[in-house]
């Protein structure tokens, strides 16, 4: 049974984090995944940790920005220790900074691995979290993600399954290809065409178009540890949280 969690970015538009944590605890979550804006220094990390524990939750994983890791590695390690993190993933690179060929993506993978090295050396699992742009193909059919992981040969992957689909690829093929490098998966759903326009076309897990049962089987054949519910823009985070954990629990208790 993987560790079931909730990406707090999904609740960024719904008031103070303390309110979200209380809601998630009541919905049945035991774990949450943080993101960089929630902990910008050791003081805010300590305050967040206290709030998480007050609601009976844990934060085993988090996202940290590449720039912060490169500019303040010691602070990032200290915050990770305060929060009790087990894994950290770099989640994004802005469009104007993205490589334009496979060689560039390989070099970028090395850069990501180097930036995460202080956390890796501190005993944490470290890696990359994808969006759809890493699904772009180059010569020979290799994707940007393939090249990134080739360059960063020690990186693990937090595979966002719906973004793989949005990028025109089959998530099962990536789960199989990187089976021994999958550390976490993001579980989100894609709405039917023309639906949920005010939610950017995303849906609650189990209430969209993604066929979860074959993906569930493929996840269970990998080295995966964490299953994390996420919605990039819900109009009701409590509804999303409750419906999604119900689907995830149904899958993993089947």
UniProtKB/TrEMBL annotation:
Domain of life of the organism encoding this protein: Bacteria
The keyword Isomerase is assigned to this record = yes
Q: Which GO-annotated molecular functions does the record name?
A: isomerase activity
| InterPro entries documented for this protein | IolE/XylAMocC-like, Xyl_isomerase-like_sf, Xyl_isomerase-like_TIM-brl
Question: Do the record's keywords include Thylakoid?
Answer: no
Q: What is this protein called?
A: Xylose isomerase
Q: Which UniProt keywords apply?
A: Isomerase
High-level lineage: Bacteria, Pseudomonadati, Pseudomonadota, Alphaproteobacteria, Hyphomicrobiales
State the Pfam families in the record.
AP_endonuc_2
Q: Which residues form the Xylose isomerase-like TIM barrel domain?
A: 23-239
């Amino acid at each position: 049974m993987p560790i079931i969690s909730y990406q707090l970015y999904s609740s960024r538009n719904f008031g103070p984090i303390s309110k979200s944590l209380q809601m998630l605890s009541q919905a049945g979550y035991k774990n949450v995944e943080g993101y960089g804006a929630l902990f910008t220094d050791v003081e805010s990390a300590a305050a967040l940790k206290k709030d998480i524990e007050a609601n009976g939750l844990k934060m085993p994983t988090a996202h940290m920005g590449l720039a912060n890791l490169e500019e303040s590695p010691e602070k990032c390690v200290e915050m990770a220790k305060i929060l009790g993190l087990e894994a950290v993933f770099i989640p994004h690179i802005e469009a104007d900074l993205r490589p334009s060929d496979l060689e560039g993506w390989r070099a970028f993978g090395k850069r990501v691995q180097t930036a995460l090295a202080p956390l890796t050396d501190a005993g944490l699992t470290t890696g990359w979290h994808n969006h759809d742009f890493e699904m772009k193909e180059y010569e020979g059919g290799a994707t940007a993600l393939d090249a990134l992981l080739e360059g960063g040969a020690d990186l693990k992957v937090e595979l966002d399954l719906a973004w793989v689909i949005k990028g025109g690829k089959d998530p099962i093929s990536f789960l199989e290809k990187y089976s021994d490098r999958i550390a976490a998966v993001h579980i989100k759903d894609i709405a039917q065409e023309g639906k949920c326009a005010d939610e950017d076309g995303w849906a609650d897990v189990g209430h969209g178009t993604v066929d979860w049962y074959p993906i569930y089987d493929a996840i269970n054949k990998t080295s995966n540890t964490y299953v994390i519910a996420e919605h990039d823009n819900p109009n009701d985070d409590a509804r999303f949280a409750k419906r999604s954990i119900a689907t995830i629990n149904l899958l993993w208790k089947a």
